[in-house]
Amino acid sequence: MDFKQAIQHVLQNYANFEGRACRSEYWYWVLAMIIAEVILYAIGLRFLYTLFALATIVPSIAVAVRRLHDIDKIGWLVLIGLIPFVGWLVIIYWAVQPGTSGPNQYGHDPLAGAEAPAGN
Questions:
Q1: In-domain check, residue 102
Q2: Is residue 118 part of a domain?
Q3: Does some domain include residue 107?
Q4: Closest to 16 measured CA to CA, from 93, 85, 82, 107
Q5: pTM above the 0.85 mark?
Q6: Considering its fold, how many domains does the chain have in total?
């Protein structure tokens, strides 16, 4: 998945907390958010920066949950990120892990194409 596809996929699934997200989708989204927020903040558009941050909270959480699903972990574990410092380290560690090969309880492997969901 390339940068443009990843951003489009996250925005199309902005409130979808089901399924799986591959590493490239997650990390391209993180990169896009960092770039956009740095630009908005640097040029002094703090109001737009705040609006942008608020508008991207749900898609950011959703892609993080789907990323945890890809490594076969429950999405609620994203709340570990609320623990100062240590929580973010755990989330980053999980986010860099390769996803489960083949289908898992959360759906088909996003890198394997359009396989049938697990259990079918």
A1: no
A2: no
A3: no
A4: 107
A5: yes
A6: 1
Q: Which residues contact 42 (CB under 8 A, 6 or more apart)?
A: none
d(C-alpha 82, C-alpha 100), whole Å:
25
Q: What mean pLDDT comes out for the span 53-80?
A: 97
Residue 49 lies in a domain: yes
The two structure tokens encoding residue 20:
């799986």
Per-residue pLDDT tens for 86-96?
999 999 999 99
List the domain range (segments joined by +) for residue 47. 3-96
**Residues 67/26, Cβ–Cβ less than 8 Å:** yes
Q: How many residues does the structure list for the chain?
A: 120
Distance CA 12, CA 52 (A): 17
Q: Where are the alpha helices (DSSP H) in the chain?
A: 3-12, 23-42, 46-55, 57-70, 86-96
Contacts of residue 62, defined as CB under 8 A and 6 or more positions apart, other chains included, come to 10, 13, 14, 15, 16, 17
Q: Which residue shows structure tokens 């609620």?
A: 76
